[in-house]
Design brief:
alpha+beta, four-stranded antiparallel beta sheet, three-stranded antiparallel beta sheet, 5 helices, globular, TSJT1-like, DUF3700 domain-containing protein
């Protein structure tokens, strides 16, 4: 999964900057080069969606015939887009809690949770994420509002 955002929309935490990039002679890649490299490593099973100069979301689909316990989902609704990897163990309960249908998947739920957070706040983001059970990663991009919401959680029993 790859998400690239223009600096006007998302500022990476300092912890994501490698100390080697400050001292080394090797310059960091431009976003276009990063995306090109990502897609070239998976030419037949990758998907990317660009939003002008603001953002790019990309992921690699599992090979046909191979089994992956980490499903990959892409969903868009009302100019809000979600890339989701993994699964939520309590999706049925969450769908009921948020008033979604039984057939809503994890990406649809995450978009609805983001919309609730955005529209009915002021809830801190951790209030929404703490109710999610499972192993997952997601990136939500609100192209209208220019907001990014992301989380990563690995459940190890």
């Amino acid at each position: 999964m790859l998400a690239i955002f223009h600096k006007a929309f998302a500022h990476p935490p300092d912890e994501l900057n490698s100390p080697a990039s400050y001292n080394g002679s090797k310059k960091p890649k431009h976003p276009e080069e990063t995306l090109r490299d990502f897609l070239s490593h998976h030419p037949h099973n990758s998907l990317s969606m660009g939003f002008g100069d603001a953002a790019v979301l990309a992921y690699v689909k599992p090979d046909q015939g191979s089994y992956s316990k980490h499903q990959r989902l892409f969903c868009g609704f009302d100019d809000i887009y979600c890339l989701f990897l993994g699964s939520l163990n309590n999706l049925c309960l969450l769908n009921k809690q948020y008033g979604l249908t039984k057939c809503s998947n994890e990406a649809m739920f995450v978009i609805e949770a983001y919309r609730t957070l955005r529209d009915r706040g002021p809830y801190p983001a951790d209030q929404v994420v703490k109710d999610l059970e499972g192993s997952f990663a997601f990136v939500v991009y609100d192209s209208k509002g220019g907001n990014v919401f992301a989380a990563l959680f690995l459940f190890c029993p």
